[in-house]
Amino acid sequence: MTTLVTDNCQRCRFTECVTACPVSAFHAGEDMLYINPDVCVDCGACIPKCPVQAIYEDIDLPDKLEEWIDINETRAKKFPIITKKESAYEGAEDRKKTLGF
Amino acid sequence: MTTSLKTKNQLKVAIIGSGPSGFYVADSIINSGISAEITILEKLPCPYGLIRYGVAPDHQKLKRIANTLDTIAEQPSVNFLGNVELGKDISLEEIKSNYQVIVFCNGMSDSISLGIDGEHLTGVYPCNDLIGWYNGHPDYQDLEFNFDHDTAIVIGHGNVAIDISRILSKSIDDLRTSDIPENALETLSKKTLKHVHMIGRRGPIQSKFTTKEFHELGKLSNCNVSLDPKYLNLNAASQLELDDISNTIVHKNYKVMQSYAENFSAINDNNKTQISIDFMMNPKYFAGKKQLSSAFFEETYLEGAAFNQTCKTTDRLIEIRCGLAFTSVGFRGTILENLPINEPKRTLSNQNSNLIGGDGKIIKGLYAAGWVKRGPHGVIGTNRECAQNTVDSILKDIPILLQSNAEGNAGLLKVLNKKNIRYTTFEDWKVIDKKEIDNGLLLGKPREKFVTVKEMLASL
Q1: Could you tell me whether strands B331-332 and B110-111 are parallel, antiparallel, or unpaired per DSSP bridges?
Q2: Strands B281-288, B292-303: parallel, antiparallel or unpaired by DSSP?
Q3: Domain of B343: which CATH number?
């Protein structure tokens, strides 16, 4: 069981998710966030927080997004932990619209 | 001089309750960077509240949240005092005289009753009784359950109902790898349940499950999960709710339901426990002489616009023969020290986390966070954001709060010592924790809990 961030977060980075994480499992990359699978307890609190539905559990992950399991695992630890909401990426609202949300 | 100045400007905070909310309030205060001394008060000798006693005993990964809470408890500005119960061992006035801020994070521990005939019958229990019992909570150890029945029903369609259904359905060998205490395992080993019904008043689109828990049911090796496909024929309003793009979880749950609907007409393997998910049934009454023998439901239907549908009952009665019924229709708070509450959920009356008195005015220095503030909703992580909001309110009030003097933890310890209260510290808890883990190791399980306060204290 894994919970992970996928490509919808890229250049959105709304960061609403981090306020709901009980174990501080999010790491802040430059243009998106990643979840550290060693820390995450799969509580799912972050999933409904994401305005662009970028967060999945592996049980409902579409096949085309499977590579993101490894990407989260390798990239998360390279970036600092984020626990507070930050302002979204510039142009995030436009991107959200493009993504259909 | 420096020390007294430092102490003078240090905010003294007492937090009532050591569940996730209590710890997250402490964490948010520390992260705010203000100078503060924090005492977390807990009525049991051990911390973590619902992480220890609410999260299901077979969900050990989720219980790892306790590791995060540990790092908060070990901050130098945080003191944990267990086995101290507000209203019994210590009064609100005694705490007030030692702290500038009191944050109530004591949660909600009462199950809401259905208020229907037959709830007193043997075999009918609020969910809390079973959860407290199988999680080893000291307050629930006198209960006696008998699982020697063919059928159990669980009323409610949320994660608590799923937890209960799963524990009732799993094989005893599977349960032995959880941290259900040995005394409860002994009773559960005698269960003969062949059928567990999980019953809700409303339809599939209105259920409150989270997908992971709902999906997990279908993965249990000795169970067959099914639902009648007729429930997936939605009315127009429910279809609109399902089609709404922001309704992610419902969408995911619906997919899982479709897979369970496929199991409906499959021939049941008699060696498997059958878990049925039933919708559109409102509990009417329980029947039986002394022991429950049947539960009766009224068939319901939904009326109104999407996202605003209400549940109406018909006069068509449905009987389910069962020997056990667990009601899981929500929680409410307890009345505490005459603090004003909002019925029916019994949250503490508050405005932006500040408690408000009977006169509608803010009570200086008193705050709330977690369920007792916002009601019994959300997942564990929800409490982190909730705690942050409470701390934001406290931070705004700091100039006023610091006007009064308070001795903090040292002052409270004087009161407790004077009253001869046997309190526990976080160091004590670590001793109990280690012994529980060691005892569990001998039994091949994550831990073997001490199930009475006496045992916990005797282990020190």
Answers
A1: antiparallel
A2: antiparallel
A3: 3.40.50.720
DSSP string, B18-53: -SHHHHHHHHHHHHHT--EEEEEE-SSSS--THHHH
Q: Would you give the end-to-end CA distance of chain A in angstroms?
A: 27
d(CA B69, CA B36) in angstroms, rounded, equals 18
Please, which residues 192-211 of chain B have a Cβ atom closer than 8 Å to chain A?
210-211
How long is chain A? 101
- Calculate how close chain B gets to A90, using CA atoms only, in Å: 23
Q: Are strands B273-278 and B223-227 parallel, antiparallel or unpaired?
A: parallel
Structure tokens at B120: 């007193």
Q: Into how many domains does chain B fold?
A: 2
| CA dihedral over B264, B269, B275, B276, signed as positive or negative | positive
Q: Residue B435 domain-assigned? A: no
- Find the range with the poorest average confidence among A43-57, A68-82, B280-294, B338-352: B338-352
User: Which of B384, B390, B391 should be substituted to probe chain A, the one whose Cβ sees the most A Cβ atoms within 10 Å?
Assistant: B384
d(CA A33, CA A21): 13
Q: From edge to edge, which strands make up the β-sheet containing B124-126?
A: B124-126, B324-327, B151-155, B195-199, B273-278, B223-227
Q: Clarify whether residues B195 and B90 are in a common domain.
A: no
Q: Does B249 touch chain A (CB under 8 A)?
A: yes
Whether B242 and B164 share a structural domain: yes
Together in a domain, B318 and B387 = no
Which chain A residues are Cβ-neighbours of B211 within 8 angstroms? 44, 57, 59-60
CA B424 to chain centre: 23
B352 plus B398 within the same structural domain = yes
Question: Does the CB of B62 have a partner CB in chain A at under 8 Å?
Answer: yes
- In total, the C-beta contacts within 8 angstroms joining chain A to chain B are 65
Q: Which of A60, A61, A81, A101 to mutate to test the interface with B (most CBs of B within 10 A)?
A: A60
Question: Measured between alpha carbons, how far is A68 from A74 in angstroms, rounded to an integer?
Answer: 10
Same domain, B27 and B46: yes
Chain segment B338-381, per-residue pLDDT in tens = 788 888 888 999 999 999 998 889 999 999 999 999 998 888 99
CA dihedral B363, B365, B366, B368 (to 10 degrees): 130
In this model, does residue B3 exceed pLDDT 80? no
pLDDT of B341: 86
Which domain range does residue B272 map to? Answer: 113-329
pLDDT digits (tens, 9 = 90+) for B279-289: 999 999 999 99
Distance CA B284, CA B300 (A): 11
Q: Which amino acid is at B300?
A: T
